Automatic annotation (TrEMBL):
It comes from the Eukaryota. Pfam families: TPD1_C (PF24068). The keyword Signal applies. This is Uncharacterized protein LOC111008881 isoform X2. One of its GO terms (biological process) is cell fate determination. Keywords: Signal. It comes from Momordica charantia (Bitter gourd). InterPro entries: TPD1. The keyword Signal applies. Residues 1-22 form the signal peptide.
Length: 122
């Protein structure tokens, strides 16, 4: 009887740990950027890389885009600006192992702040 109870406790512990590893939040989305060294229409070109450091996918990622400007065309499938919010990656999942990058050009870097996302741990 003691062995099945210990096994049950171990299984419960592992299930709690596994679930804990898949509880993501918008805070798990990291935005980094740096100048590429190129200019577009006299503006500095910036490379933005957005990554997910959680084991679960995150989708429907919205970024704060208040005041965002660029003189370089950005693929709307990657960054679609509407009013003051940008939909990232057309709402498709951002996997932990697959950061996505894009470039834009403006005088100064824009602080793309993640606002919200939906987590998928399936």
């Amino acid at each position: 009887m003691a062995v099945p109870m210990k096994l049950f406790c171990v299984l419960i512990l592992f299930s709690l740990l596994y679930k804990g590893n898949c509880q993501c939040s918008v805070g798990n989305i990291k935005v980094s950027q740096s100048p590429t060294g190129s200019q577009v229409l006299g503006k500095t070109q910036w490379r933005v890389t957005i990554s997910n450091n959680c084991g679960c996918s995150q989708l429907s990622i919205l970024l704060d885009c208040v005041g965002y400007q660029t003189v370089e065309n950005v693929d709307p499938a990657i960054l679609n600006s509407a009013a003051n919010v940008c939909l990232f990656n057309s709402g498709r999942p951002l996997l932990k192992s697959a950061p996505i990058s894009f470039t834009y050009a403006w005088d100064n870097p824009y602080p793309f702040t993640p606002l919200s996302s939906t987590t998928y741990c399936g």
